[in-house]
Amino acid sequence: AAASASVADPPHRSPQPQPQPLLGLAAAAASAALLLSGPATAFGPENLPLEVVSYADIVCPVGVPKDARCIETKAKVTLGGSKPAYNSEVFGRVRLPNGESALYGDFAEASDAGKMSDIDEIQPGTSTVSFMLKLIKESKDGELTFVQMKSRSYPGMRADFRIMKPVSDTESCELEKELGLECPDEIPF
Hints:
Blueprint (H helix, E strand, L loop, with lengths): L20 H17 L8 E4 L1 E8 L9 E12 L5 E11 L21 E6 L2 E12 L8 E9 L20 H5 L11
């Protein structure tokens, strides 16, 4: 006797939604239009080469160690775009005539990884900026060499970013008000 094979019916499945090719094409076109419609916006930090043109000794501000030498450094910088950059950080190396680091506290010569100063504001185009550097006292002997000097600016940084207010000058519910929340009557600490 011949064996008969039976084929079982597949289990019942819900109909799957069919892809909508036009919907995907419309979404891609809308995304492209948004991206291409306005000026390009930078999201990350921008490194700007600094060309040191001069430096001069200045009186160190309060808080700088007494065995440091302070200089005001002037450098040319070029910033693209139409908006100024605020609170830029200065990186690079400063060398003594014998090739050693002239930076105060630069024990590991990590100045390329750690900032050495700040620039309050850089105007668009080519301009001259100034910033203070702390050097070792021995740096008074001979001409200094500035190596790989650059400024790092962050798009969108506000001019008042580094201005600190005493706690007594701030409202205790600033964040709640900014988020549209109610301010508690008492702070729980």
